[in-house]
Amino acid sequence: MKFRILLAILLFSTCLTGFAQSQITGIWGIDFNSSMNTVSQKLISRGVKSSDIHKSPTNIVLEGSVRFASENFDGCCFFFDKDQFKMVVFNKAIQYEDAFTTHLTYKQAEQWLANNRYKVNQVLSSLKSDLVAKYGTPHLDREDRILWKSSNGNIIEIEIKKTLDIGSETGQPEMYSEYGAIPQFSIAVVIVQPQESL
């Protein structure tokens, strides 16, 4: 009898541990609500050069290759409200590389987007695998948006946008630059502590 009770307790605690998810509390050991100076110091301790940290009164921008999970991004920006860290956004663009030598028409740009979606899917698969391992199954999982929300209310969101021209939305060919269409996918990862008023 004691063996059965012990076995039941052991199984129950294993189930609880297996379903426990990590809380979203910030990034890279930088907790939400940290001051801008604390964030800067922690970035420097992670090996970021102080010359690569660009500050303004409300944000810190890291340009150049920045790693999040198992992916390299084109940069990231930490946002602050009243000197408290509230959000970080990582950006990655997958775009037509020959825009200045080969002009694309509207149809060619659409075809490029269709032919290169696999690159976006590879990035998404890698990010999703890393985030599922730490935070569990996403609360929302669509082709263009994936979202995790921890019990403390904090959120990680991956958003995909595609454009036929940099700075314009799909379906607006009149926005082409003088070089023709420059199609691209934009991948943004947003880690945010929502404001109480939202």
Overall description:
The chain has helices at 2-19, 36-45, 106-115, 117-135; strands at residues 26-27, 30-31, 53-55, 59-68, 71-81, 84-95, 140-141, 145-149, 155-163, 184-192. With 198 residues, the protein is an alpha+beta fold. The strands form two sheets. It has an eight-stranded antiparallel beta sheet with strand order 3-4-5-6-10-9-8-7. It has a two-stranded antiparallel ribbon with strand order 1-2.
Task: Describe how the helices and strands are arranged.
Blueprint: H1 2-19, E1 26-27, E2 30-31, H2 36-45, E3 53-55, E4 59-68, E5 71-81, E6 84-95, H3 106-115, H4 117-135, E7 140-141, E8 145-149, E9 155-163, E10 184-192
Antiparallel strand pairs: 1-2, 3-4, 4-5, 5-6, 6-10, 7-8, 8-9, 9-10
Throw out a few tags for this protein.
198 residues, alpha+beta, 8-stranded antiparallel sheet, two-stranded antiparallel ribbon, 4 helices, 29% helix, globular
| Uncertain segments | 3-20
Strands side by side in the biggest sheet: 3-4-5-6-10-9-8-7
How do the helices and strands follow one another from N- to C-terminus?
HEEHEEEEHHEEEE
- Helix content estimate: 25-40%
Short description:
This protein has 198 residues and is α+β, with helices and mostly antiparallel strands. 29% of the residues lie in helices and 33% in strands. The longest helix has 19 residues, at 117-135.
